[in-house]
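Q: Fold this one first, please.
A: Sequence and structure below.
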Amino acid sequence: VDDMTRGVGHTDLGTGTTVTGIALTLVDGAPYWLVFNIGDSRVYSYRDGTLEQLTLDHSIVQELLDAGAITPAEAEVHPHSNVITRAVGFNEDPVPDYFLLPIVAGSRLLVCSDGLTKELTEHGIRYFLAEGSSPLDAAQQLMDAALGNGGRDNVTVVVVDVLATPESGAHREGVSRRAARRH
């Protein structure tokens, strides 16, 4: 992640873009997801009917929510909902959040732009991830639903299923996240 930020940190573009993703890595021989983000694109985990937002938006609205200045309902319609506080390509070095997440068989990860989350509620996202369809079909259904709801922003969707994990005990269910870095 640090190599990525060094390569783009000194641009004079004046505008920026978000970056969010997952990468497979090994820690002491056990598989983990490296989850990272800059901006307001997100990573979600879906397992056993539970949808969890793993990343934190870097936005004015998120800061207002965190401070208790607005409610989640107010955040949905806030006039500054598209203003991000961190991006790749601003005139300063980008600062990502990143952490390790144990890989659990049967889980499904969603990496998406805010074009999806501004058009679908968490209930809607959960519905399409729960359908039992292939990752490709789930991604297409999510994209179609977002575009069908108005699609006012770009919509990017990647769905990844964890079908199995090695028999090592270090990655089993119940292992907590490791090495979180949030600014």
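Q: Good. Now the second chain.
A: Here it is, same layout.
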Amino acid sequence: MPTASSRPNDLAATVVVVEDDRESADILRLYLEDAGCDVHIARDGAEGLELAHRTSPDLVILDLMMPKMDGWTVCRELRRTSDVPILILSARQEEEDRLTGLGLGADDYVVKPFSPREIV
């Protein structure tokens, strides 16, 4: 099976990153693009939900604490209409938060601070 970096550009994995922290979003973009992904950034939950519906991504990386619409709501809404893999990336590290995210349909939960290599 080809990896993202060995695929032709027209087969690159599309990733939507929903992250209001510019530095985290930029780091994720850098590592994901280096791995051959087509990356789209949303700075708030409402924009992220719209972007995910418009681009039909292969993966959504989702922060929880964001303006306009929190990540919990985005995850719940995405799951109503899509089975896209969702990776929650959050500073919220309590077990209850992780279990809630997974219970809402997230496929994985990574706690900040994170190593970009954990994501890629």
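Q: Anything worth noting on the second one?
A: Strands lie at 14-18, 38-42, 59-62, 86-90, 108-111.
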